[in-house]
Each structure stands twice: as structure tokens, then as C-alpha cells.
Design brief:
Elements: H1 6-10, H2 33-39, H3 43-62, H4 66-71, E1 78-79, H5 105-108, H6 112-130, H7 139-165, H8 189-206, H9 218-231, H10 235-245, E2 269-273, E3 308-309, H11 311-318, H12 323-328, E4 329-332, E5 335-341, E6 347-348, E7 359-360, E8 364-368, H13 369-382, H14 386-400, H15 409-423, H16 430-437, H17 444-447, H18 452-456, H19 466-469
Antiparallel strand pairs: 1-3, 2-8, 4-5, 6-7
Helix pairs in contact: 3-6, 3-7, 6-7, 7-8, 8-9, 9-10, 10-13, 13-14, 13-15, 14-15
């Protein structure tokens, strides 16, 4: 595939986004046969469509900072400042009440933006498959790599949605008549994840092991397969695909270089979304990472606009005296007892005449080696290999500047989760770890919020905006717990 650094020249957000107009609940656009005949004529246009799919994914996770809400605020490790009054009910202090999200309903209860990605990928897969190999400079290999990128992104999107809202509407192809899209029931998780695994098997076979981490690779496809198998509690295959992913040659950054992870294409990163500042590209944004900045980074930034590390979590499990803690957290300018994560605090003041203008220049790392090593520890524990699980846990602890721990049984399993929480704070994963590892009842900090009814009715998933979505699809059902909570 020819995708290089075209994004740094024109910006992904500036390339053609196919199928982005709204049609019913799936955001499907009509297939215009005349337009299709003009567009799907060479590999260069497929490249534009592929870049558009990556842009749609970036826009979807950045929307109202939902990536951090779903993975971190909902898990209780982060606490939004007072300016974010409408986030209060979603966090620990509000009892993780996901059904009260004033002004956030379009980002937290509506999955439509993710179906834009699905539709874009479906268009790429269908049209590229039908194109002759002669239309691609590098023939069949290039053609298959475009299809593999689209299948990887489709699988990533469906798996992400499954972890946020539970069962999804599984759309496997574009609809030929957008005016007559049938009502659809939600597909069971087993069907959706089987579809994702098939997509990823194709991706892993046809993708290369590229050095640019903001595009899919063989290693990323295998890592995502491992995550899906772990979600299904198939830990034998989890280990298998982690081993395949590690053939990509990833390595842990030294602790002195720890913060390089979020600066783009680090040796630890497996897959990331480009958000670095450049004068020509428009991948960067101010209003995403800026909740982790203080007046130390941006003059005049108020305390109420900062998301801090939850004070209870800070004292009980995070303030561990490690080099990692000192590297990725910082005190509030006026209060040493409050701390903020600083993984994303690289700021570019790009206008010398106006110092108030700035860009936060970091990439959003979606998968990295430390995550995979700790997932392997979880799988090894579940597969009866406690010694190996402890070795992997201690590998991440040692890199953080901590000594080995010696644990066994359920204490080891709990500690693997707690180490994931320390290592991956602010990376949008912790709530999904809680669900996968089934720890809501085992940990006192969650058990009072997740009673038997909430767990039996899957109240860890988010509600859907039925007022908006149901009139467009009469077969859609609400997540059980949120029907009367």
C-alpha cells in the first residue's frame, strides 16, 4: 500500500470522506452509480478513501472526549473539574449513573458516528474487491492491503462499540437502496466478534509490518485478535495471537524515555491515531487532550477545567513512589495533593503573536506493548501458568521502577488488574478491563455501585438514545438495565 505521509501534507481530515451524509440510523449514504464509476477507477482514490476512514475513526473517539469518558471517567480513575458539571453523574461521585448525561447524549448514547466508519469501510471493501489489479501500481498486493486496512478498521470499530454499548447492529455490506433500509435487531456478541475475527485474519495475512504506527499492521491485527479472544475468555487463543503480534519487533521504552510513547511511532506503540501538530496537517486539536493541562502548560488555565486523578485512587493504589508515577503525573500548580496525568502535555505555541493559541501535539496510542504484556499475564494466569503471569507482571513493574512482587491465586489476578490501571490510566481501557475481568463485585471501590441487578442486566454498558434511534429502527432495543434506571 502506498499510504505514506500524505496526511502530513494535506491532513487526513481534508481527504475525501465517502458516505458521511446521514441516512437513517446507520448513516448510510446512497450509492450513486455515476459517481462510483468516476471515483473507483484507480488506487490513488482508494488511498483517499482509506485515509478518510482513519479520519472518521479519529473524529469518533475524540467526539466530546468520549474515549476518555468510556474508558477512564466511567472506571473512576479520573475526575472531571467543576467546569464539567454535566460529567458528575458519570463518575464515581455520581454513582456511575450513565443514564444522566445532559448535553452529552449525542456522544455517549448515540453510536451513529461509528457507523460512518463502518459504511466507509464497507464501501472500500466492496468497490476495491471489484477493481482490477491493473488499477493499482503494485498490483494485487496493494489492492489487498487497502482491503486489509478497511477490514482492520471495521473490526476495531465493531469491537469498540461492543465494549461500550453491548450488542450492536451488525452491518456487513452497504445497502443498495438507502430509502428502504430494513429495521434491524441487534446481533449477539458471538456473531459480531466472529465477523471481526474473520476480518482480522484477512488483515493479518495481507498487511505488512510497517514502521508508521498510525496505520494498521500485521502486528496490530494480531494484537486486536488477542484482545477479542480475551474478551471472550478464550485465553488459549489470547496467548497464541499475542505471540504472533510480538513478532512485530516491539520493545518497551526505557523509563527515562517513557513519555516518548505518546510522541509518535515509538518502539512500544502498536497502533495509534495521528494527532501531532504540523503547520499543514490538521490532525491535531486543542479540545481533546487539553483537559489534562494545567496553568503550567497553558497560561491562565483554570482549575475547574482540569481532569484530575481521582483522589481516592491516587492515595490507595497509584501513589506508589515509582519513577513512572513521577514521569506521568504532575501536581496542580496551587495544590500538591491534587495531581493530573501528563502523558499528553506536549504543547506547541504556534503563533508567536498570540501566546494563547496552542496545539496539543501527541498521538492517541490505542494499543501498545505494555498493554499486551499485561494481557498476556492475565491469559497466563487463567491458563494455569501463574509463574509466567508473575514474570510478566513484574516486567512492567520493573520498568516502572518498582521491585518484584510475589503473589499467587486471586491476589495475583487482582494485582494484574491494578497494574493495568496504573500503567494505562488515561488510555481509555480501564472500564473495559473491569468488564472483561469481571471485577465489579470483587473490588470494594466498585461493589457498592454495581449490585446484582445492575450486573445481571449488564449495567456496565451505556444506554442508547432511544428517542433519537428508535424512530429510525423499530427493531432496536434498549440495554436492559437502563430501561428503568
Amino acid at each position: 500500500m502506498k499510504i505514506k505521509h500524505i496526511l502530513s501534507v494535506i491532513g487526513i481530515s481534508g481527504v475525501l470522506l465517502l458516505g458521511s451524509s446521514c441516512t437513517k440510523y446507520l448513516n448510510l449514504s446512497p450509492e450513486n452509480s455515476t459517481y462510483d464509476e468516476v471515483f473507483w477507477t484507480d488506487g490513488a482514490n482508494v488511498e483517499k478513501a482509506t485515509l478518510g476512514a482513519y479520519a472518521l475513526l479519529r473524529d469518533a473517539v475524540r467526539n466530546e472526549r468520549s474515549y476518555f469518558i468510556f474508558g477512564d471517567i466511567a472506571s473512576g480513575v479520573l475526575k472531571a473539574g467543576g467546569d464539567y458539571w454535566n460529567y458528575a453523574s458519570l463518575s464515581k461521585s455520581g454513582g456511575f449513573k450513565f443514564s444522566y448525561a445532559p448535553y452529552l447524549e449525542p456522544s455517549l448514547w448515540d453510536w451513529t458516528r461509528f457507523y460512518k466508519i463502518i459504511n466507509q469501510c464497507n464501501l472500500i471493501i466492496e468497490h476495491t474487491t471489484a477493481m482490477d489489479v491493473s488499477l493499482f501500481d503494485n498490483g494485487e498486493d496493494e489492492k489487498n492491503q487497502y482491503i486489509a486496512n478497511a477490514k482492520f478498521l471495521r473490526a476495531y470499530t465493531y469491537f469498540y462499540m461492543q465494549r461500550v454499548w453491548g450488542d450492536v447492529l451488525l452491518v456487513k455490506e452497504t445497502f443498495k437502496d438507502p430509502q428502504n433500509i430494513p429495521d434491524m435487531a441487534r446481533s449477539p456478541q458471538t456473531e459480531t466478534l466472529a465477523f471481526c475475527k474473520a476480518d482480522l485474519a484477512f488483515a493479518a495475512t495481507n498487511l505488512g509490518q510497517g514502521s508508521v504506527k498510525s496505520f494498521a499492521s500485521k502486528g496490530a491485527a494480531n494484537a486486536l485478535l488477542a484482545e477479542i479472544y480475551a474478551w471472550e475468555h478464550d485465553y488459549i487463543n489470547t496467548e497464541k495471537y499475542i505471540a504472533e503480534a510480538l513478532k512485530g519487533g516491539y520493545a518497551l521504552e526505557d523509563i527515562k524515555d517513557y513519555r516518548k510513547i505518546w510522541q509518535g511511532d515509538s518502539k512500544e506503540s502498536i497502533f495509534e491515531l495521528n494527532m501531532l501538530y504540523s503547520e499543514t496537517g490538521r490532525e491535531w486539536t486543542t479540545d481533546f487532550f487539553n483537559v489534562f493541562l494545567t496553568s503550567t502548560n497553558v497560561e491562565g488555565k483554570g482549575i475547574g477545567s482540569i481532569w484530575e486523578i481521582d483522589p481516592e485512587f491516587l492515595e490507595s493504589d497509584f501513589k506508589d513512589g515509582s519513577v513512572r508515577f513521577d514521569s506521568i503525573t504532575a501536581p496542580f500548580p496551587d495544590n500538591d495533593l491534587q495531581r493530573v496525568i501528563r502523558k499528553y502535555d506536549r504543547v506547541e505555541k504556534y503563533n508567536p503573536n498570540d501566546k494563547s493559541l496552542y496545539a496539543v501535539s501527541n498521538n492517541l496510542v490505542l494499543m501498545r506493548l505494555a498493554d499486551l504484556i499485561l494481557l498476556r499475564a492475565e491469559a497466563e494466569f487463567k491458563n494455569g501458568k501463574e509463574v509466567l503471569a508473575l514474570d510478566d507482571l513484574n516486567m512492567i513493574r520493573n520498568r516502572a521502577g518498582l521491585t518484584d512482587t510475589v503473589l499467587s491465586g486471586n491476589d495475583l489476578f487482582i494485582e494484574i488488574f491494578k497494574e493495568r490501571r496504573r500503567e494505562l490510566i488515561g488510555e481509555g481501557t480501564i472500564q473495559f478491563d473491569l468488564i472483561r475481568m469481571n471485577l465489579f463485585k470483587q473490588l470494594d471501590e466498585y461493589s457498592s455501585y454495581y449490585d446484582d441487578e445492575r450486573l445481571s442486566k449488564q449495567g456496565y454498558y451505556w444506554p442508547l438514545n432511544m428517542r433519537t434511534l428508535l424512530p429510525q429502527n423499530e427493531s432496536l432495543t434498549q440495554n436492559p438495565y437502563w430501561m428503568n434506571h
